[in-house]
Amino acid sequence: MSNFDKLSINTATIKRASLAEALAATKAAGLSHIGLWRDKVAEVGLEAAVKMVKASGLQVSSLCRGGFLTAADEAGQAAALADNKAAILEAKALGTTEIIMVVGGLPDFSVSPGAVDGGGAAVAVAGGKDLVLARQRVADRLAELVPFALEHGVRLVLEPLHPMFAADRAVLSTLGQALDLAAPHPVEAVGVVVDTFHVWWDPSLREVIARAGAEGRIASYQVCDFNLPIASDALLSRGFMGDGVVDFASIGAWVAETGYDGVVEVEIFNEDIWAQPFADVIDTVKDRYAELVEPYLAVVSV
Amino acid sequence: MSNFDKLSINTATIKRASLAEALAATKAAGLSHIGLWRDKVAEVGLEAAVKMVKASGLQVSSLCRGGFLTAADEAGQAAALADNKAAILEAKALGTTEIIMVVGGLPDFSVSPGAVDGGGAAVAVAGGKDLVLARQRVADRLAELVPFALEHGVRLVLEPLHPMFAADRAVLSTLGQALDLAAPHPVEAVGVVVDTFHVWWDPSLREVIARAGAEGRIASYQVCDFNLPIASDALLSRGFMGDGVVDFASIGAWVAETGYDGVVEVEIFNEDIWAQPFADVIDTVKDRYAELVEPYLAVVSV
């Protein structure tokens, strides 16, 4: 019999829900975790959001998102640091230790830091197409943020994005690259997320998940499918587990082999799913989780 | 002053041209190389195509494409071997030593071997979502083809495709993976192509291009840009050099560092470009090549 103790619904999956509706629907579905986006928090204000979360009894599994660290100019870099420090404090206030980091794209092509996925506008800023330099700037900014994260007990969770987003959202493209980026920093300060949508294609995935586990870096396992054909906004190609190409049995087993027994968060950007009633979406997530994800994880609470 | 001795136009770039028109336009532009697709050859028949190529005086830089080696069933595997042997013989007859290999996707999602890019229909066949197994079958089929390729003096040129095509076109997703796949075989039998559209995002690109050079595997350098936003058919997101996100200066320098001084082939799938007069397309390719590609290559004939 399935147990949903480890399942978390990310608010992006029920994007049209207000924070109150998202908390209520997650609670009504018998779940105990929720992943929050900062825009949902901002809609009611941090103080109110903290009270609402506390009243719900739900545990916040992660806060999305920090990052956007690739600015080539000083003003952009200062703004990024300030925004990430604010995100760290929000995470702490909301009772989660995990802030998901989407590191940003090439300066000429990156969406703006404040953009909400599925609705954000790209803005062109100066800085060129040099990926090597952009990646170095991410490393530099990360090093500047680590002390603040440590001070507040929040982990910067690096999210490698699918290489189709390397120019406009994240120059961090593989889990191996994320581990290299994390390596100089304490595991309490920098982790990685294994998001099936972004990493399923990686020929070295088994080895690099094992490495992430051995190095104590796996902060979150996020599941959703990669749908074909790719949506006209590629970001919205995420689907319910089972609707796309991802081999959840293999990837789940590899994650389980590391001993990971943390929360499994479901974050789906998909117009068709957003149009469905929140309760129906969560029901489908639970069904697919029970069928395709949970059986392959090591620790199944019964 | 630019010299176009090394520049090759792939017929996919002027997709609406017949073989005769493609040969004439390439010749009229003062170029000496052309890359052919098998469908263009099939339109007139191999024998006629060989005569036309000979009469044109152009050198065929590569033949596209062999591959589609992921079938899980015996009939599909036998058909793939037969088709690839035919492709090897066609390449030999057309006077090129290079057959570009697109290895095929997951059996459940792969386009059919005969599909022409930009016009092909996906067909579902049995076999599941197991990428590890699909990749192993590619290695198995490649080993079966190598003796035939060696016998006929044709090189099987492995093309890693961008990871957004890992399910439907090529389970071969990185240049490093291509080199691992090539490793057991002689360099005369198995090479790799560095196609900027597919590999620009790779965090290990500089190192892996150096490895490809050191191992004697670079059979072709193909250039085109990666346009944003991604086209509704992602395959058609290729663009003229300079129109997208690719850093040709860096990648060109890395290729040049290996000592590569072979042909540079331009292969662009793009509806807007296909709608332009062939001569205009080739003129733009020449301009962009002279501005963005040639200056970074080691050996510039003057």
CATH class category name of chain A? Alpha Beta
What does the oligomeric state look like here?
homodimer
Radius of gyration of chain A, taken over Cα atoms and rounded to an integer in Å = 18 Å
Report the average pLDDT across residues of chain A. 93
In whole angstroms, the N-to-C terminal distance of chain A is 7 Å
Backbone shape of chain A? globular
Describe this structure in words.
The structure is a homodimer of 302-residue chains. Chain A has eleven helices and ten strands. Chain A has 302 residues and is an alpha/beta fold. In chain A, strands 1-2-3-4-5-6-7-10 form an eight-stranded parallel barrel, surrounded by seven helices. A two-stranded antiparallel ribbon of chain A has the order 8-9. Chain A is globular and about 45 Å long. Chain A starts with 6 loop residues before the first strand and ends in a 9-residue tail after the last helix. Mean pLDDT of chain A is 93; it is low at 118-127. At the A-B interface, helix 5 of A face helix 5 of B.
Overview in brief:
The first copy, chain A, has about 300 residues and is α/β, with parallel strands linked by helices.
Q: Main traits of this protein?
A:
homodimer, 302 residues, 15% strand, globular
Give me the secondary-structure topology:
Two copies of one chain form a homodimer.
Chain A: E1 7-10, H1 19-28, E2 33-37, H2 38-44, H3 46-56, E3 59-67, H4 74-94, E4 98-102, H5 131-152, E5 155-158, H6 175-182, E6 190-195, H7 196-199, H8 205-214, E7 218-223, E8 225-226, E9 238-239, H9 248-257, E10 264-266, H10 271-274, H11 278-293
Parallel strand pairs in A: 1-2, 1-10, 2-3, 3-4, 4-5, 5-6, 6-7, 7-10
Antiparallel strand pairs in A: 8-9
Helix pairs in contact in A: 1-3, 4-5, 8-9
